[in-house]
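Thread: quick sanity check before group meeting

JM: Hey all, I'm pulling together slides for Thursday and realized we never actually wrote out the predicted structure for the chain we discussed last week. Dropping the sequence here so it's in one place. If anyone has concerns about the input, flag it before I start.
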Amino acid sequence: MARDLLIGLYLLLFKGLFNLCKIFPTKDKVTFVVSFGENSLNVYEEMKKQHITSEIVFLKKSSCSYDLETLTDAKVLQFETRNIMDLVGSIYHLATSKHILVDNYYGFLASIEFKEDVQCIQLWHAAGALKSFGLQDRSAKKRSSNAQNRFLNVYNKFDKVVVGSDEMAKIFLEAFALSSQAVLRTGVPRTDLFYNQELQSEIIETLYKENPILKMKKVILYAPTYRDNELDNFSLMLDLTKMHAELSEEYVLLIKLHPAIKNKAKQYEEEYPDFVYDYSSFNTINYLLLITDILITDYSSIPYEYCLLNKPMVFFAYDIDTYQRTRGLPEDYHKQLPGPLVFNTTDVIDTIKHNRFDLSLVEEFSKKWNRYSTGSSSKNLIQFLYNEQEENQPILEQQKQQQQVL
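JM (edit): ok, ran it. Output follows.
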């Protein structure tokens, strides 16, 4: 009750300031609201490449680990902060921008109404989904009626939601209660990296230079999903002693934990030198995927991009029953996986040592989930936003055809 009251007061303040700022005219301006950043940065880079002259603004949440302040041709403000100047400035840019691109759920959307000529586009931070979110998240159903109405009001503000596949389109339609007309099949911008061989080579060379052992041994990357309450009660469920004993001659293990608990992994790096490396603070996980030989994850969205490299992955779902009960997973979760499902460290090691992988499953998985993410996703989105109607017709026709399917 107290939480809903505080949120309500904040949204009331936000709405009042936003309505005042709507008095000012709409400008040729793109405002990115970022919690993660990677999709937004890819779109930004494409805008620069195409010499788009629109004013660019980034509203940066504290969870965004990218150093956006180094961008010399974009304004960067801290978002949802106690800094009054940044708060008012952020609201002004939201009220006067022609295009608003968001990469997460943002409660402020529930309290405002954009002008008719403004587009709000959901540039979701994941290319696919195994775990439930939005209206499908079981924990959301336990929230108050005010909170649930707020969720719907936020989702209603999405004019378009960017997807890389029809499968993800179906998920968004249910999770956000959207109509089929809201789906924009341009592909996911952050996947463009996997089609850019020159950029990949530069990234790999840099990673090897920073840590030469990554070139000397095969790389296992462990990137688990963040679980509720892990900030205070995190426990690594992989038995690193066993893994070190069985795998350290041939492999190194990189650990990429959620930013909220990233400091927890330092102790493992100290306990297992030359085997465990903490990469939790590393910004761009897709860069790490380029040097990864085997991925270990669980309910994360990482496999939807890693599959583009056609490399093996293991799904270490040690708490699947609990996660299913509290957050929700597809009933056929195990059938959707493009790799072995295991529940303990012994089976993780056995899978790796005996190469129990079927890469044909990875290939099928990629075709299913990356149908529209074919290396030009950022370019496609810019085309949708800026080109004339006749030039934009191929994308618009594609939207109409796929809407009929859904």
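AS: nice. The chain has two domains: 2-188+374-405, 193-369. The radius of gyration is 22 Å.
JM: adding both to the slides.
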